[in-house]
User: What shape does this take?
Amino acid sequence: MDIEKHNQLLNILGQYYGMVYLSQKNRPKKMAYFDFVVSEIHGLRIKELQDSRKAGNKVIGAFCIYAPEEIAYAANATMVGLCGGADFSVPDAEAVIPRNLCPLIKSFYGFKLNGTCPYFQSSDLVVGETTCDGKKKVYELLNELIQTYVIEIPHKPDTQQGKEFWLKEVEAFKAKIEEVTGNKITAEKLKAAITLINNKRKALKRLNNLRLYNPSPISGLDALLIYQISFNDDPVRFTAKVNELCEELEQRVKDGIGVTAKDAPRLMISGCPMAIPNWKVHSIAQEAGASVVVEESCVGTRYFSELVEPKGDSLNDLLWAIVEKYSKIPCACFTPNDRRLKSVKDLAEEFNVDGIIYYTLQNCHDYNVESVKVDRVAKAAGLPMLKIETDYAMGDSAQIKTRVEAFLEIIAGKKQQ
Ligand code: BJ8
Assistant: This one.
């Protein structure tokens, strides 16, 4: 670890968090736990991981929700999301890899290069995946710095061949995890791990469903934060804390307490994932008076909308259930990706949104191109859509703010008609 540089990072993060999160009014009391997690995300949580390693367990770092975390937990390992959401590490990456890459890729590679992500430093293995080309090629370079195992993902996951291929890859991943951890994955252990992660996804879904209410009892920023933390916190404790928060939110709904005005425009944000501390678009939208009520994103509904649902108790049944669940993740890297279009349409209806912000990171060709089809879905549903293509730097914040404000005026005009 580069301690001095890491301290700089923590200072920047602390100030930014105070500005974006702690300045919000009327937050649920139970958000205190998640504030605490953020304050200790590079402190106590890392100590927990280190203690677990001392006890003989392994830590597996990942970047994508396609890495089947149930397999890691079935071998007594912990899976954590690695740093990749901040501009801080981008200049270090750009000294080695091309600048015209997606900021997420540059950010994670830079974090490993400059030694300021303690999750990287605590990982025994990194799991990559063949989703987009940029990631795939940078994993080769990452492997020079830390052992990186790449899972091959079928790009037509809905086909029978795709699923059979994916089963072989899930089995190979299981074998790799068994080798790294030295623990055999039995049907019993895998079943327990499936229940563990299903419970986490159910709690997140319960939280998300509370945002159906108008006014929403929780802000879009707070919901986003919880989805981000879900990749770093201990799953048992995290699930319990999300359920406690949901109880408070359910009471808020009964008492008619919301965090935004009842007539605030309800927005969906759809597109690239937002890793911690990527809060830029949510905070701009919220500040402009909108209520972000749902994220069609891997840090959002794509992560928790489906559960692993085994049809039997054998190891083969359990692995097939993992294959089926993960095949349904509608990532723009896949083709065709009609499942995502349907998801955008369904979520827009269910959450009664007034507009969609399409969020794409610069140089992410998959999400950028797919915006054409999502725009058609929005038009067919009579919903205005604003496409924002950005990176992790704050240089374009004022421009985005102006565009979001104009977008909200269009929505207001439409509502008046
Ligand atoms: S399942 S969205 S988490 S790959 S933004 S690095 S796609 S160039 S992150 Fe993702 Fe898994 Fe898909 Fe989800 Fe590439 Fe695009 Fe960058 Fe991306």
Q: What stands out?
A: Strands lie at 59-62, 78-81, 125-129, 148-151, 266-271, 291-296, 355-361, 385-390. The radius of gyration is 21 Å.
